[in-house]
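Re: [help] complex structure
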Amino acid sequence: MSVELKNIHFSYGQVKALRGVSLSLNKGATGLLGPNGAGKSTLLKVMLGFLPPDEGEGQILGYDLRTEQKLIRQQVGYMPEDECYIPGMDAVTFTSYLGELSGLPRQEAIKRAHEVLFYVGLGESRYRLIDTYSAGMRQRLKLAQALVHDPKILFLDEPTSNLDPTGRQEILELIGEIASSQEISVLICSHILADIELICDQVIIINQGQIAASGRIEDLRMINYQLYELKVKGEIEPFRQELAARGCRIEETEDRLVKIYTPPDFNSLEIFRAAARNRLQIRQFIRSQSSLEDLFARVVGVD
Amino acid sequence: MATIREKGYHHWEGRLKEKPRAFWPIIRTGIKLAFERRRFKLLFAFSFVPAVVYGVGVYVSERLEDFKFMAQGAEKTLQVNPNFFKSYLTLDIIYFMILLLMSLGGAGLMADDFKHKAVQLYFSRPLTKLDYLFGKAGVVMFFVGVLTLVPGILLLILKLLFSGSFNFFLNYPWLLLSIIFYSAFLMLFFAIFVLFCSSLSNNRNYAIAIMWSIYIFSDILGAILKGIFRSPYSSLLSIKANLGQVGAAFFLLKPPYDYPWYLSLLTLSLFSILAYVAINRKVRGVEVIR
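Output below.
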């Protein structure tokens, strides 16, 4: 187990940012999702050992959260969301410098810097001043500095922001490769749910300082709700009202496709019965694959 | 035989070590970055002019007979004694050069990190706040040491070499310690002063302006108040005057101002403590991860 947190509480003064967070992280890629102010950043800070929890305990790679923060940070690679760099340096100097600060011997740090810069696709421009880099190149550089000391866990905060579609695809492939074929756990914090869906097999959804859902994406989809897609003929409003009263969420797309999200214990026959009562003709009925976006909206309680 | 490796990510096969001097790469890189500026290199070379002049002074003082034609009446000025070393280390031009060098190589030490949000990169490493601050302070201390400690000791060695005996050293056995301790004091004070100014802004140009403003206006304010109140204690407001006063004490000489030297030491210490608290708060206040 890479990360094991038990009942973590943390408050900023009177504001409770984390309220009894318990989670475990295995090898592979895990997405960390949540609306703004949900406690994602605070959770990352706690896991990096910056904030000592008020309550609870935890271990990162077997190191205690409260007492072995330096050892944790030595084994963790962190890619911040912000565009951050040290001006006046070229990419090799920058990456090797941060590798050295992580505990690599100087010569090894330089060697590793070259390797990871080639890996993230900055090999040709590694001697250029970072100040002259484009936003996308800086994003790759942030990934390089997170990888330079060969961490056991990678925390990636919005890894695909500022990237064009091609760059985004390339970065996602790199992350996917790291997560799938290497012995590295990757925790990705992103607002782009499609990215998470593409490379993560697990997800943690945090809301109001609590874990709202966690587990394999496939499992969560099944547990939390079912999605049915219908094509109907007739007046939809009474049908909608009846199902909404029974805990379903109904959306209608522009091409008159009706999406019905039902609660976990809802019997799908009830949809037909409601349609019959409201004299609505069902012309198509498909049990559909729900997206992560749907899951997120459902768990967090937003449309 | 070299192995052919597959394209892709490779693990590092070594073992990460917890470094006891984690600040050392920060010092080394800070110095290296300063020297990458061409203007800094020129200024750095120029800042040794006072030391060279004093070195010539040491030589001439030992060869007064040879230089009689050009050093007439200069016997008193060219006396190499503790006052000679103190005067070098408390020269206005030395402080001026330190500030000038730090404008190019020190003002951005923290300001640039704040501006480019690099602080979080440092603290996501196994570094403590003290490692970070000591690393940054080390850069300033290096340059101040190069302008004070190194020439001070070299001048002493030159004096011994040119005089051809150890008499001077035996007459003033404490002089070496005075040079070392006063230089160390300057290194520490300027490190805190420069980092304080650098931490006050995210823009290195503002940090430079703050640095010069504090240094110059403290002196002007001291002079104005001295003019109004006719009290020597007004000079306690001047950084330059306080440094001179403390310098005299380190060299066991009469202080230039008519008040006890320890008041100057107290003033500078108080300023340094407050500056350190401010730096500490500023670094703590940085959001490591948003």
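The CA atoms of residues 118 and 124 of chain A lie 8 Å apart.
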